[in-house]
Amino acid sequence: QQQVKQSPQSLIVQKGGISIINCAYENTAFDYFPWYQQFPGKGPALLIAIRPDVSEKKEGRFTISFNKSAKQFSLHIMDSQPGDSATYFCAARLRGSTLGRLYFGRGTQLTVWP
Amino acid sequence: SAVISQKPSRDICQRGTSLTIQCQVDSQVTMMFWYRQQPGQSLTLIATANQGSEATYESGFVIDKFPISRPNLTFSTLTVSNMSPEDSSIYLCSAGTSGNTGELFFGEGSRLTVL
After folding, report:
1. Model confidence over A17-74: pLDDT tens digits?
2. Number of domains in chain B
3. A41 touches chain B (CB under 8 A)
4. Residue B27, domain extent
5. Which residues fall within 8 angstroms of residue A45, CB to CB, at 6 or more apart?
6. Which positions in chain B touch A35 (Cβ < 8 Å)?
7. Is the CB of B31 inside 8 Å of chain A's CB atoms?
């Protein structure tokens, strides 16, 4: 059973456009929601993370929107660039759980065309 | 932050053999973990590597198949035993220090292909 459901599986966006990736969860005991970026041949790297006490977090061109009542969160990449082409994973961690016990979504392969 | 190095980065193995993956972290971290990333799939936690004691395995993973060692704070090994083609995957070492940030760092992974 997938604890965190991610969509779309793949996304193609033109340079300068907005990329939006969505995730949903059921377990209300999740209290930490990170997004990871993974380039081919590399390990995942933390991009941005949010806790459920805020509805939005912005870091540069990357924004997480969090809807606690709907149990959904999304990643928005503004002014998408070819260098953003990568696989993006959302994840969630249970309250009180150990650091590494993350439940990952299946990933979204983003391609930004120049 | 933490830089995590893994060896080997990739290997091709024969069915029935075992392979040990090494993971070295460049700074002292409190926690180390091993993940599996199957082709086109998500990341799944295999186990928490505990310093000086037996690893804590997630459901579906057992010590006989994936023995793990962590002799000190910055080094861990994962062995994939008696490999079958279904074990072909990327194995990722991760580490971090518990605290307010709770950031988890990943190595670049070890891509295993079992023939």
Report:
1. 999 999 999 999 999 999 999 999 899 999 999 998 999 999 999 999 999 999 999 9
2. 1
3. yes
4. 13-114
5. A36, A37, A38, B105, B106
6. none
7. yes
